[in-house]
Amino acid sequence: MAAEGRTHKPVVDRDLCQSCSVCLRECPAELFPELRSDEDTTRGYVYSNTDLASRKVLPPCIGECPLGQQVRDYVRLLEVGKVKEALLVIRQNNPLPGVCGYVCHHPCEKACIRGCWDDPVSIRELKRYAAHYEMDHRGEIVEVLIQRKEPARGKKVVIVGAGPAGLACGFELVMHGYGVTVMDALAQPGGMLVGGIPPFRLPRYVVDHDVGIIRSLGVEFLSSVRIGRDVSLPEVMRDGAEAVVLATGAWTDLTLDVPGEGAKGCLKCLDFLGAVNTGQNVKLSGRVLVVGGGNAAIDTARSALRLGAEQVIVVYRRSREEMPANHEEVEAAIEEGVEVQYLLAPKRILTENGTVTGLELVRMELGDFDETARRRPVPIAGSEYIEEADVIIPALGQRPGLSFLDVKAISEHDTITRTASGMVPGYEGLFAAGDAVSGPSTVVEAMGSGKAVAQQVMDYLEGMPRRW
């Protein structure tokens, strides 16, 4: 910004502009709102083509991040080659930078102002680059993180579930001086990161590294312990803990609820992915139909191809625009040979001698918008037809399994209810986080929930003594 003439009229001197702060609304020209409509400038173009003027949290990339990552800070550090410094900025808010570098759905990039005129900043890929630096310099990063830890408070928290929410909660608590034990039903920590997401999307060494950092900070992990089977909730709550956090996720598959679903060759999605991801000898052949439109359906289809299926078809009841799976994952599946058919819903599974032979489908059309803000699929009368199949895998979504809780703590949506303080009703000192509360969500959303609940646990422990 410069001034000219006796009236000191402000003008924009483009040669003086060294960096654009328009996404922060910090350009000097912001003092003169009429300049927002100057279509010959970046600023004017941005205001005309984005919702920047109405944004309450700036920059938009931070506003959209469930973890509140300081995106601009670490991107600028990476730009000048200060990778360690950038990684340590990331580590202020993100306990799983390696994981996020691979499977975050990057809402920050969707909000990036740069994307309104060409492409957004590749924030996720930059985080991946920084995370790989950390893998090569693990010792010095752990040393800094240990220095950042607050002094021990002499209070213990038990977290049930070692998925993204539980890991994020544990990281936050241990960094603030609390003793943390995380127990999980699986043989290794990670939850859906190791039990649901295939290794071709999320390499296991990445998960192992992020979990290893958390372990190095003092978090204790107990594996192959399922609440309600190997240990009861009262036992967990009595085991020397001042607070307990349920981060058990959503591990129960939704069913098609159509005739024939129990036939041989109709597989459960999470059982299938779990077997594949734990290295079990799973073989497929022939024609595989996957029913669903989320990331689990796409992961299942891509895994089926890799296991020898001759043809894999994903059938989804809405259109491509309503499909909840990440766009890039759908594109990758199609490039690999997966066929995706839209506006189809299952009516019944055809069998012969108790074995799957096909799937009867009905064509759909989109009607009015429903509670999910998507158009409701409506069957077209008389449009039924048969798709032959050797294997059918429903991948409609998941719900939490909460049989270990009192029914009063379970919502009508089969999720855990919470009070405003984050506590589970009827249980003193018991908190809940992640998909067990929200239903299936993204990795980074579950992490954000875990971080938020960690703060609620700290508020509770610092303000109220143990009452068990």
Description of the molecule:
This protein has 468 residues and is of the alpha/beta class. It has three domains: 55-139, Alpha-helical ferredoxin (Fumarate Reductase Iron-sulfur Protein, Chain B, domain 2, Orthogonal Bundle), CATH 1.10.1060.10; 152-251 and 400-463, FAD/NAD(P)-binding domain (3-Layer(bba) Sandwich); 253-397, FAD/NAD(P)-binding domain (3-Layer(bba) Sandwich). Helix content is 34%, strand content 17%. It has helices at residues 42-49, 60-64, 71-79, 83-91, 97-103, 107-111, 123-136, 138-148, 164-175, 192-195, 204-216, 233-238, 269-277, 295-306, 327-336, 435-438, 443-463, and strands at 2-4, 9-11, 156-160, 179-183, 220-222, 243-246, 252-253, 287-291, 311-315, 339-341, 344-352, 355-369, 375-379, 385-388, 391-394, 398-399, 430-432. Strands 5-4-3-6-17 form a five-stranded parallel sheet, with helices on one face. Strands 10-9-8-15 form a four-stranded parallel sheet, covered by helices on one side.
Defining key terms:
468 residues, alpha/beta, Fumarate Reductase Iron-sulfur Protein, Chain B, domain 2, FAD/NAD(P)-binding domain, 3 domains, five-stranded parallel beta sheet, four-stranded parallel beta sheet, 17 helices, disordered N terminus
